[in-house]
Amino acid sequence: MVELAPSILSCNFYDLKSDIEDTYGTDLKILHVDVMDGIFVPNISFGFKVINDLRKNCNYFLDTHLMIEEPIRYIEEFKKAGADRLTVHYEACKNLGETLDLINKSGMKAGLTFKPKTDKESMLDYMDKIDLILIMSVEPGFGGQSFMEDSLEKIKFFRKYIDDNNLDVKIEVDGGIKTTNVNKVIDAGADIIVAGSDVFAKDIKNQINNYYQIFKQKSL
Ligand code: DX5
Ligand code: ZN
After folding, report:
1. 0.85 cut: is pTM over it?
2. Residues 152 and 184: beta-carbon distance below 8 Å
3. Which of 31, 37, 145 to mutate to test the pocket of ligand 1 (most atoms within 8 A of CB)?
4. Taking the CA atoms of the chain, what radius of gyration do you get in angstroms?
5. Cα–Cα distance for residue pair 127/123, rounded to 1 Å
6. What integer pLDDT is reported at residue 147 of this predicted model?
């Protein structure tokens, strides 16, 4: 079944505990954690301390999306903080192969993503080093943007490539997803749905349940 990964970027950081606790009692297993350095993207979010405090206080799989230059510098720190997966940007790594190898060696899962204007085919050389390909359906940097329709073709492209080659790689889609447009994202072949503002800026528990109701309907 499809899984939801709500992005905590849209949480109320003054009351993070309460936002996270609102997710309890649902089918949720994953939190999407957006780390931004103000250089790779024009925004700064949060870092190790927030991840570590989440790690100590909840059992969710911490799906960590690194919008930072040269993430290879911080793999050990993210491991220590308690991240479960590090997804790095193609454009941010001088030596992407080595970066992915080090993430795998650390015992975390390795994901790969790319900005909307980057050629998707460039990812194919790395498919054997990753457990997740993340399709960005907005320009990375901010929550609350509109879904880019041309990402549907990219999802279909990777769905076919993964299925044809029998790869154990999940497809995650991130940006502008709402309960009102998630159906076409799933139909295109997504396995994991990231939603920030559509979960944490609304009735959190209710929205998570709405998403899982859609996912269950789809898997019938
Ligand atoms: C954007 C982030 C997203 C963002 C999604 O750079 O990677 O994860 O938080 O937010 P929404 O769902 O509001 O577009
Ligand atoms: Zn993200």
Report:
1. yes
2. yes
3. 145
4. 16
5. 7
6. 98
Side chain identity, residue 118: T
Distance 73 CA to ligand 1 centre (A): 24
The overall average pLDDT reported for the chain is 98
What count of Cα atoms within 13 Å lies in the side-chain half-sphere of residue 24? 9
Length of the chain counted residue by residue: 220
Cα–ligand 2 centroid distance for 22 (angstroms): 20
**Mutation choice for ligand 1 from 8, 139, 181, 197, CB with most ligand atoms inside 8 A:** 197
Å from CA of 202 to ligand 1 middle = 15
Structure tokens at 146: 């509109």
DSSP label of 37: B
pLDDT tens, 82-107? 999 999 999 999 999 999 999 999 99
Residues with CB under 6 A from ligand 1: 7, 9-10, 32, 34, 65, 138, 140-145, 174-177, 194-198
Query: For residue 111, what are its two tokens?
Result: 């994901």
> Is residue 86 within 8 Å of 110, Cβ to Cβ?
yes
Q: Are 114 and 89 in contact, with CB atoms under 8 Å apart? A: yes
Catalytic residue list: 34, 174
Virtual torsion, Cα 190, 196, 197, 202, nearest 10 deg: 100
